[in-house]
Design brief:
alpha+beta; DNA Binding (I), subunit A; 2 domains; five-stranded mixed β-sheet; two-stranded antiparallel sheet; 9 strands; 21% helix; 20% strand
């Protein structure tokens, strides 16, 4: 149970990382973070430990008592978003293209996909986000050393350099607990984080 995961929010309730329950309890106990319940109320360690654990399935035994497992914690002082540089890598290109061949549209397992330079390197094409796409083996062979127009092929979607928000890029992993869901909702995030006019 102590190695299960807890969603960590910054001070403005934006998801920034996932940590272990053990680390979350340490942050909660030292006052670095507060537990967040399903009604967006925050609790320090003492007030969280006083909540009734009897009605909850997920609890941890302490000396002489049990405590509810917090599935979401919010840092008390950190309000920035972590800067994220997306590495230009094969896996990130596959993720950007959703494991889908950008010529025929087939969604395939990684073993049946490769990368293709839209403008081949032999014709001066660069290895950049904007010139490399995911393709299946058949489309890659068909295109060969030609540009798509020469091979009578059409791109489904123009490639782009991804820009990332942590809750959109999947870097925090799947939503494992129902308590996490409200913090991954872009409409909810926009409502709570839009700058208000004076």
């Amino acid at each position: 149970m102590l190695s299960s995961t807890v969603l960590v929010l910054n001070r403005t309730f934006f998801p920034i990382q996932v940590t272990t329950l053990k680390r979350a309890f340490c942050m909660l106990y030292t006052g670095i973070a507060k537990a967040v319940d399903t009604e967006y109320r925050t609790f320090d360690f003492e007030s969280w430990s006083q909540l009734s654990a009897a009605v909850h399935d997920e609890t941890i035994g302490l000396v002489g008592r049990v405590i509810r497992v917090p599935r979401v914690i919010a840092l008390t002082a950190y309000d920035r978003l972590p800067k994220r540089h997306i590495r230009f890598s094969r896996i990130n290109i596959l993720i950007r293209d959703r494991h889908t061949c950008q010529y025929c549209g087939l969604r395939l397992p990684r073993s049946q996909l490769n990368l293709d330079h839209i403008v081949p390197r032999s014709k001066g094409g660069l290895t950049t986000w904007e010139n490399v796409v995911t393709s299946c083996h058949n489309c890659n062979r068909k295109k060969g050393g030609q540009v798509p127009e020469e091979a009578h092929m059409k791109l489904i979607r123009r490639p782009f350099r991804p820009t990332v928000a942590p809750f959109l890029d999947g870097s925090l992993g799947p939503i494992r607990y129902e308590e996490w869901r409200p913090f991954f909702n872009i409409v909810d995030y926009s409502y709570w984080n839009v700058e208000l006019e004076a």
